[in-house]
Amino acid sequence: MKRIIMLLCLVMAFSGCEKDDICVDETTPQLVLEFYDISNPTVLKNVVNLKVTGDGMTDALNTFNGVSTISLPLKTNEDTTKYHLLLNSNSSTASNEDVLEFNYTRENVYVSRACGYKTVFELNNANGLVLTDAITPDGLWIQDTNLQTNSIITENEVHLKIYF
Amino acid sequence: MKCISKFTFSIALALLSFSGNAQEEKVTKDSVAAKTERYGLRVGVDLFKLTRSFYEKDYRGLELVGDYRLTRKHYLALELGNENKTVDDDQLNFTTKGSYIRVGFDYNSYQNWLDMENIISVGLRYGVSSFSQRLNSYEIYNPNQYFGENPVVISGEEYSGLSAQWIEVVAGMKAEVFNNVFVGFSFRLNRLVNQKLPNNFDNLYIPGFNRTYNGDFGVGFNYTVSYFIPIYKATVKAKAKTESKAKSKGKKK
User: Fold this and answer.
1) Which domains, from first to last, does chain B contain?
2) Is the pTM of this model over 0.90?
3) A residues 39-58 closer than 8 Å to B (CB)
4) CB neighbour burial string for B129-164, b if at least 16 within 10 angstroms, e if fewer
5) Is 0.85 exceeded by the ipTM?
6) What would the pLDDT profile of A82-94 be if each residue is shown by its tens digit?
7) What is the distance in angstroms between the Cα of A58 and the nearest Cα belonging to chain B?
8) Which of A13, A17, A76 sits opposite B142 (nearest CB)?
9) Is A102 exposed, middle or buried (CB count within 10 Å of its CB: 0-12, 13-18, 19+)?
10) Residue of B149, B18, B40, B133 whose CA lies nearest to B84
11) Do B8 and A13 touch (CB under 8 A)?
């Protein structure tokens, strides 16, 4: 009996201290883009030195090379996120910039004690995706877009297909 | 470390009162006289919650405890309480307010010497809590911080009419320190049976149940001072008496 109580005391003494849990759940999703060949729309095509920069940001998100899938974070405190996509960014003559603008509504969803909340996005029907040319026009390198879903709730699916 | 010393202190204090008491009584009393035992009601207050209310500014709580001796070994136990706690986690800050009641029994497994009335018990409780929560603020978890850190969202959302029911396994002890005044403590393991969850939030703290671990598991502790109100006396049956004699002899060896 005394041993049981002592054991209980020990267990309690340690579990009484609240430890910081680590967030392991899926949280705020990014928008997943997949690139396809315009001349053969079922075949994935790798991008070449694609420099992606958020509108108004000085540092680029990343420069993607030799990949056909990229993920873009959306702003969780604004209903609009704009990205500049510069293809062949290391070339001064062949580079081409297009602008993708995403307009959406946001919802904060409870996840867990450790993660707190996540934001999920619903792209607007009317202007969820807007493709424009750069400020200094150089023509569109993105030939076609195909929005797969308006709901950005998980990263385990492709949200937008881009043909070039 | 702070938690550990707090617990060790309480344990040491209660154990001390046990041993001190035992020595006093042993000398003065004789077991030849017909043995009677007192039955009655014990009422008290949880000092752990009460003191926490003073030194922790995010906590206010009160728990009244009571038990009634049904048989030689069995006690009917009841705990009534009210808590108001603000939890400040990394991602969340919320306030839980509410009242609770726990009903159950204790089984005294301690063989007392002579007319001592100390208790080392195991027991079960069924707890019911009615509470409300206010989500003060929260943070959005975003693994990608390209656009900078997420600002804290001030919410203020109220979730009322929440409830929970649970089962507790209790291990505890009580020792008589003065005439009719008992000091005791108990440890509890709680398991949720049923709860009403808020929409788009969770019951991370439940009055009477405490913090929820893995969604439905919890632990508890109380440190009580109580007063025993004797109601009637009953003579210990001969069989029970010889049994207790044999046991106490065995212990003395």
Assistant:
1) 39-245 (2.40.160.20)
2) no
3) 54, 57
4) bbbebbbbebbbbbeeebbeebeebebeeebeebeb
5) no
6) 999 999 888 888 8
7) 11
8) A76
9) buried
10) B133
11) yes
